[in-house]
Structures are given as structure tokens and as C-alpha cells.
Amino acid sequence: MICGSVYMTCAIGTTTLSFVLPAAECDFTLDSANKGEINATPLVGMIFGSYVWGSMADTQGRKKVLVISLTMDFIAGLLSSLAPNFITFLICRFFNGFGIIGATSVCFPYLSEFLAFKHRDLNLCRLEIFWVLGVCAVPGLAWLLIPLKFTWTPYPELTFRSWRLFVFFCGVPSLIIGLTLHFCFHETPKFLLSQGHHDEALAVLRKVFVFNKRRDPSEYCVRRLAAETHNLQLNEDGSPMHFPHEHKGEKASLGRRIVLRLEVLWDQNVALFSGPLAKYTLLACFIDFGIMSSYYTLMLWFPELLERFHSYNNLHGGDAQVSGVCDVMGVVLDPGANNCTSPEHVHGPDNDVYLHTLIIGLSCLPTSFMLGYLVRKIGTRIMLMLFMTTSGIAILCLHLIHNEMQNLVLSCVFEALASVAEATLFCAVVHIFPTHLRALAVSLTVTCGRIGAVLGNILLGVLLDLSCEVPITTFGVLLVGGSSKVGF
């Protein structure tokens, strides 16, 4: 449950901006390119953060990274809700992305290292259910808060509207879950053992036994743990050896500790990009790039795109026919009907936009519940290929839609399949990579995915009003093309 709560919090933190774009348009005087920059900035933070957190998790511990990153996300959310201008808001959202990606990428290794191999796939896939719940919670919370018509001006440069309250409340779960992790949960026994803390690892396993079985600690019969001998070299006493630089800096100066930290990071990267692991590292990075360039971009832009579709229908009548989604996306919102003097526009999108976004989120629940079963019965590789191919075709079919309902159906199909693709990829990654490289491998995969998401958001923001056929086609081709690489 705690890992599910972490992952749900990550979904909330990641998708918050999807409803801020139409609501904050007037306060920050946003055009489509500015909106692309807002969506891309947290993803840039994720690119920098994921690599840092992954290396830190492999040397300092999974739990420590989860607590610190969630706390950072809350602080960034609080500050961004008070940001007086566009630039300040971008800076705050950068640190939001920097923080939340630590929890997103380390959540899977943290949970996997408490699970037996036979239960790992099923339970890791179940995390996707919590992601979907988080995605569904965002439009629900936005629908509750953003339409509130109030303003508060603590100083001339800042007008506090309902969308700022929404941004603040989206950060609160990170603080709650971070504190819960800090005070109530333990480091993973696998990580402790990999660091040579045998007795601490055994104590954690004993507590897990007591909690699961409701029995006395003295009944736990395990007295000695074996290290992963296929992943780590052992000392003569059976304890695992470490990277040569790992413990030299414990009492060194700050500068020396930074140098040693970089040396450890270099050793980890050499291990990932050499030998038999290099193929899997590059493949995972390429696949996540294709998934996230389309999924994150469209997920963050869905409310904006739905708002444009709604405005198009208002301008041309509810039964207006189009010859593809780009007919609608090229329409700039009518400045006479939706300008910043209109109270409805100042306080966010139309109610139908919240409803349709919620429907798109709920469409992910069936695939999320079925994911664990499908992966166990059919296999990770086949399911990943199926998810990527079908979601890519759904994107390409957006060129063929004729009305808002067809757009909604295809959006649901895309979201339902693309949302589980990355979780399926993570299941494969935690299987392939050893304990002492696992968190960094996931983080490196996530980094490449967020690079794709940054480029996707910038591409869509720049071309949305000019030639939206280019990004839509690119996203579809990347997914279909990436699925062909899964078989290698």
C-alpha cells in the first residue's frame, strides 16, 4: 500500500499542470509555446533528478531517496502556488520535476526488493492501478477547486486564484506519504545486504515476518542471509564486496566526498554500458523515449486540447464535422468569447473538459487491473509490444476523426494502453539488472523517457497552432517503431 500511495502521489505531481494551463492562461499571458515550456520544465527537472536520485538510491538507500524527493516535491508545489510570474513559476516547477522523479523511479526497486521472485511481476504491475487512481484524482480535484470564483491579492504582483489552491493541494500528498515513509517503514533488506549490513537486513525481514504471519519474532528461523553471488563479489567471510571508492569518503572533506561520489557513479555507468548489460540498457532507454514522448505530452495537453475542441463546437455548432484532430487544434480560441475579462475563462475550462479528462483517466482502470495477469500469462515482452503498437495506431487514427466523441474514444484507447506500457517496461528492467545497479538502471531509463517527453512537449507547443500533423504523426511512429525493437 505504501508503494502504491507513493506511485499515486507521483501521478498527481506529474499531471498537475494539465489543468493549470487553461486556468493560468490569463495570469501569465500564455500562448501555445509558453504552455509547452510550462509542461516541459518539470520534465527537464526530471532529467537531471532521475540520474542523481538513481545513483543515490544505489549507494545511500531507497527509503532515504523516497523521503527526500517527496518532501522536495511538496516544497516546490507550495512555492509554485505562490509564484508571482511566469519565470518564477517555471523555476518552481523545475524543482517539482526534480523531486517527484526520485519517488517515481525508486518506487519500483523499493517494492521489488521486498518481494519473492514469483510474486514480483504481479505486485509491480499492481502499482499501475495506483498511478491511474492518481491520474483520475487530478481532474476530480481540479473540478472541485478550479471553478471556485475567489481572488486574494496579498501583494500587487500576486493574485491568488483557485488554480493556485489546486496546485498547493496537489503537493500535500507528497508531504503526508514522505512523513509516513520516514517514521513507519524500513530500508529494503536487499539493499542493506548489498551494503554489508547483514544484521540490519535480517532484522527487517524478521519484522516483515511478524507483520505478515502475526507470529512471535523468535519463530523466525532464518539466521544467515546469502548475498546475490551472481551480482556481487564476496569477501572471505561471505559479506559482499563494494565499489573501491564507496567507503573511503565517510570521514573525508566535502570536496573529496563529491569526487568519490562521482567515481562511484562512473563505476556504475561503466557496469551498465559494458558487457552483457549494455544491450539492455540502450534498449530500455530507447523504448521509454518512444513511450514517454507521446504519453506524457498528450496526457499533459489533453485538457487544453479538449478545451479547444469544446470552443470549436461552440463556434461552429455542436454537430460540426472535422476531417482530423488538427482541424480543431489549429483554431485559436475565439478572443471575443474566451478572453481574460471573462470570469469563466479566468477560472478555468468548461465542465465538459473536466468530465472528459476524468473519463479518459478511468478508461485506464481495466488495463491496470488486468496488467499483472496478462504479464504472468503472456509475458512482459509480448504485452509491451502489444501496448505500444496499439496505442501508436490510436494516435495515428486521430487524423481520421470527424467529431468530439470519436476524439474521446481514441484518446481513451491511447491513454489506457500507453499508461501501462512504462510500468511493463519497469517490470522487465528490475528483473534484468542486479541489485547494486537496479535503481540507477530504472532512473537512466526514466531519464531517457523524460528527454522524449521534453522534446514532445516543445514540439507540440511550437507546432500546435501551425502544423499539428507533424507531432501527432511523430508520436505514433515512435510508438509503433519502438515496439518493433522490443523483440530484439
TrEMBL record:
Transmembrane segments: 65-91, 97-117, 129-146, 166-185, 280-302, 353-375, 382-402, 408-433, 440-464
Keyword Cell wall biogenesis/degradation: no
Database matches in PROSITE patterns: MFS
SUPFAM superfamilies to which the protein is assigned, alphabetical: MFS general substrate transporter (SSF103473)
Tagged with keyword Lipid biosynthesis: no
Domain Major facilitator superfamily (MFS) profile: 1-488
GO cellular component: a single term: membrane
Membrane-related topology note: Multi-pass membrane protein
Protein keywords: Membrane, Transmembrane, Transmembrane helix, Transport
Compartment(s) where it occurs, according to its Swiss-Prot or TrEMBL record: Membrane
GO MF annotation: an example: transmembrane transporter activity
Major localisation: membrane
Annotated protein name in UniProt: Major facilitator superfamily (MFS) profile domain-containing protein
